[in-house]
Design a protein that fits this description.
Layout: E1 4-7, E2 10-13, H1 17-28, E3 33-36, H2 55-60, H3 64-70, E4 72-74, E5 76-81, E6 86-91, E7 103-105, H4 108-122, E8 125-127, E9 131-138, E10 141-149, E11 152-157, E12 160-163, H5 170-175, E13 177-180, E14 186-193, E15 207-211, E16 216-223, E17 226-234, H6 235-239, H7 245-254, H8 257-262, E18 273-276, E19 280-283, E20 286-287, E21 290-292, E22 298-299, H9 307-327, H10 334-358, H11 361-367, H12 374-384, H13 393-421
Bound molecules: flavin-adenine dinucleotide.
Length: 422
């Protein structure tokens, strides 16, 4: 029997935020779009705290009202240090070049469903629960993909195959190489609680990141009765403690007075879940007829909530660059994807500076203290709101000063360690 064969302008694999962003934009532009998703929705995903720079894109996708009506507004972020009892709040409304005064905290089961519903409404043909199998090539060009649902198989062909499969890294595994991050090697355990008590400096909806001796902990209010609480350790910290991860999680929460204060009277309402080895880069991120977006291209670390932001903006950028070619029925040439990759690397680099920085003692010293000037606060808030691709020159100057101070502190601490060792 001959296999069914459907032709599209664009085929997207994976209906998370990255895949839906590309699919919705392409359908809105009048292209024929196929979207393949292996799981039935609603399905769980971690990654709930968005950034303000997501807001203009949500508007472009026709999702702002829907998300606004259902999600918790996130006006800022509080960073607390258990050791010094210091808390510092970043207000997004105060950020230089703010694109929006707030972001959202989203329940991913609902948010991803809303995105998929919007894709269907925009005219995307969804294959669910279908799984992408091997790619179909003509010489070195990807021209389609074989998809399966149990024993049933189909072929989808397109001018571009978009890999938005998240940490499954579907095309990266077949056509590229995955490199684990050379610095970060983290493990995270998380669960949900039914109540939050905010710190007096917090505003309702703020995320809080609490640094303890052994881990950092996120507290994300999704609704008044659903609070996401996750702990992140380096692998070394886990190796030294053989207890199981739920025990380890309970013990790190119990050992932090700050976490205990936020969770006063709260009870855990779900089992714990654990993920590990989530920091990696995929190379190459594109080839003839294919491109990767979101976590299928790279993921660094959750500490500054950059995941869904970089995912959705990478999908938007890849789409915008490809559109003129797709409109005229062509596969975008390789230089288009090279330019996309340069742009994405810039954003990744912007966040990597903060993420790698966060795990150094100098960063903690500078970050967990009141900045001497308000402009420093506003510039750092600007970067952390997502302004990492094209910050204005004065934002770059202010953050250069911030990084200079951190570099100086790190050198001082290194010198002290060396002196103590001799
Ligand atoms: C511990 C932790 C905490 C995090 N916290 C945050 C946070 O607070 N804020 C934030 O912004 N980000 C956070 N992230 C990152 C966030 O989870 C991801 O960046 C985001 O979910 C990536 O979206 P995506 O669309 O690329 O992939 P996903 O959301 O994973 O979607 C990929 C989809 O592809 C489908 N798929 C996979 N393989 C196939 C196949 N072969 N065929 C068909 N379909 C397939 C999957 O079923 C899935 O639905 C966190 C990550 C971790 C590890």
């Amino acid at each position: 029997m001959e296999m069914a064969h459907s032709k599209f302008d664009v085929v997207v694999i994976g209906a998370g935020p990255g895949g839906c962003t590309f699919a919705i934009l392409a359908a809105q532009a009048g292209l024929r779009v196929g979207l393949v998703e292996k799981e039935l929705f609603p399905r769980f995903r971690i990654g709930e705290s968005l950034l303000p720079e997501n807001v203009p894109l949500l508007k472009r996708l026709g999702l702002f009202e829907t998300v606004s009506n259902s999600a918790q507004k996130k006006p800022g972020a509080v960073f607390s240090n258990q050791n010094t009892d210091f808390s510092r709040r970043i207000s997004f409304a105060n950020a230089f070049e703010a694109k929006a005064p707030h972001a959202f905290q989203v329940d991913r089961e609902l948010f991803d469903q809303q995105m998929l519903d919007r894709a269907i409404e925009a005219g995307v043909q969804v294959f669910q629960p279908w799984s992408a199998g091997s790619v179909i090539k003509e010489e070195d060009r990807v021209v389609g993909v074989e998809i399966r649902n149990g024993a049933e198989k189909q072929i989808l062909s397109s001018h571009v195959l978009v890999d938005a499969t998240g940490r499954s890294v579907y095309l990266g595994k077949q056509l590229g190489k995955i490199t684990r991050d050379p610095v970060l090697n983290q493990v995270s355990t998380f669960a949900y609680f039914d109540r939050i008590t905010y710190l007096p400096i917090s505003e309702q909806g703020d995320i809080e990141i609490i640094q303890t001796d052994t881990a950092w902990i996120w507290v994300i209010p999704l609704r008044p009765d659903k609070i996401s609480v996750g702990a992140v350790w380096t692998k070394d910290q886990i190796q030294n403690r053989p207890a199981d991860m739920t025990e380890m999680y309970e013990s790190v929460l119990a050992g932090s007075a700050m976490v205990q204060a936020r969770l006063a009277g709260a009870k855990r309402i779900t089992p714990t879940q654990t993920v590990a080895d989530f920091s990696y880069d995929v190379d190459p991120k594109y080839g003839h007829g294919w491109v990767t977006v979101g976590d299928a291209a790279a993921f660094v670390d959750p500490v500054f909530s950059s995941g869904v932001f970089l995912t959705t903006l990478s999908a938007e950028r890849a789409f915008d660059l490809a559109l003129p070619f797709l409109h005229s029925g062509q596969s975008p040439p390789i230089h288009v994807w090279a330019s996309y990759e340069r742009w994405l690397k810039k954003g990744l680099k912007g966040f990597k500076q903060y993420i790698y920085g966060y795990y150094t003692p100098g960063f903690k010293k500078v970050f967990y203290s009141d900045p001497p000037f308000n402009f420093l606060k506003r510039a750092v808030a600007s970067n952390l709101a997502g302004n990492v691709f094209e910050p204005a020159w004065w934002v770059r100057c202010c953050t250069a000063f911030f990084w200079f101070n951190i570099g100086r502190e790190n050198k001082k601490i290194q010198k002290m360690i060396e002196e103590e060792a001799t």
